[in-house]
Structures are given as C-alpha cells and as structure tokens.
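Q: I'm building a small set of examples for a reading group on sequence design. Run inverse folding on the following structure and report the sequence directly after it, with nothing in between.
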C-alpha cells in the first residue's frame, strides 16, 4: 500500500482538488439518487488514447448504439470516456483498492427554473468506482491488446476495441450507495470542473486486466486536502 500523502494547502492548482481520502465521519447524510440508462449494452466500442502521459478509453459516438448517461438531481450527463488507475487514487477510510475506474460524463443538461435542485456547477460528472482483482473468464482480449500496443509503440492502436461490457453492466447495481463532493480532474491541468460521485461498493475486475493497467505505469495522484468542502453520503 502506498503511503497516505496529502498535497500542501497552498496547491498551485486550487483549493478544490482531487482525489481525497473519504471518511464517513466527515460526510453529511442525504437522500440523493443516481439513475442510469444505456449501461446494459452488449458492447462498448472505442479507442485507447493517451494525453499528457495519461491513458484512457474514449467511447465512439458513431459505433455505439447509445452512449450511457446518468441523472443526478436535476443534472443529466453522458458518458464520454473511461479512465483507469492502479492503485486507486481516492481512498476510503485511509484504505486504497487495487484499481479505480473513472467514468467521465459530460454534463449536457441546463439550469431549469423551478427544479428542486440547482444544476451542478461543473462541466463534468465523474463516477469513481473502486476495483479489486478477481480470477475471471471475462472477455477482455481486444481491450488488453490495445493497451499493449499503446505501451509498446507509444501510439493508439489503429483498430477499434471494446471496453469490457461486464464492468459497465455492473455499475448501475452499485448506484444505491455513494459519496458526493465537488473537485477536480486528477490529471492534466487538474481543472476544478468535476462533480464527483464515488461509489461505496467496489467491483471485481479480471486480474489480467489489472496487470495490463499496472504495466502502463500511470501516475497515481497524491491525496488532496478536503479543505472547507462539503462531503455528502447517500445510501447505507
């Protein structure tokens, strides 16, 4: 396990940075819900790409029947890319997981007068999902091959691949219990444009997939201070 480290208070990126160590005693209980659509498809096509030493899967709007989307309060967001880190970037009660997936959604809804909740003051809604390795016969060959090509050549695989559908299929079943806070991207310029949803319940992922993610040597960003932000928790 990596040592628990926190960024200095005078972070050059701002005061609402991510990831954080999530502790239940700091969270305020709410009765919020997440609703998702389009996560039960048989395949999710796209390409593994790299940006500023960060690798992620970008969904193809052309080749997917329908991009998955979520509704949180009065905000609707559409899934555009999936990022992955090993070990996890967020921690829960000071504990890290084997991996963490970030399902990056673009917020597409607009503020509507009279809604019970205001529009999220962000441009992205990211669902963070903890993951631990399990032995699995899950079909991951094309995705793992794309990761290998990117690592060996430094260029995205020209062939389209599929993100393991089982992972996305499992996500809605975990929506009943989550933490919510507002923060930043964990790579690039670390822009503070994210409404974070971090699911309490971890998923299991193929140990083969985890090995391929680990081989990319992606930077795992150090923990950031919560500062004076509000951390919310919904569900049991």
């Amino acid at each position: 396990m990596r040592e628990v480290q926190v960024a200095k208070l005078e972070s050059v990126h701002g005061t609402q940075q991510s990831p954080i160590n999530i502790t239940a005693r700091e969270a305020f209980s709410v009765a919020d819900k997440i609703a998702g659509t389009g996560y039960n498809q048989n395949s999710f096509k796209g390409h593994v790409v790299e940006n500023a030493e960060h690798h992620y899967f970008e969904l193809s709007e052309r080749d997917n029947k329908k991009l998955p989307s979520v509704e949180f309060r009065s905000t609707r967001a559409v899934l555009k890319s999936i990022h992955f880190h090993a070990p996890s970037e967020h921690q829960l009660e000071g504990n890290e997981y084997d991996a963490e997936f970030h399902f990056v959604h673009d917020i597409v809804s607009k503020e509507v007068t009279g809604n019970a909740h205001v529009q999220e003051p962000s441009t992205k809604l990211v669902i963070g999902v903890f993951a631990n390795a399990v032995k699995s016969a899950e079909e991951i060959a094309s995705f793992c091959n794309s990761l290998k090509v990117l690592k060996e050549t430094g260029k995205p695989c020209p062939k389209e691949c599929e993100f393991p559908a089982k992972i996305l299929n499992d996500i809605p079943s975990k929506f009943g219990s989550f933490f919510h806070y507002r923060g930043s991207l964990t790579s690039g310029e670390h822009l503070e444009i994210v409404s974070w949803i971090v699911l309490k319940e971890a998923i299991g992922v193929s140990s083969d997939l985890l090995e391929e993610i680990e081989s990319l040597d992606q930077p795992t960003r150090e923990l950031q201070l919560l500062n004076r932000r509000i951390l919310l928790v919904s569900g049991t």
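Residues 141-153 form the longest helix (13 residues).
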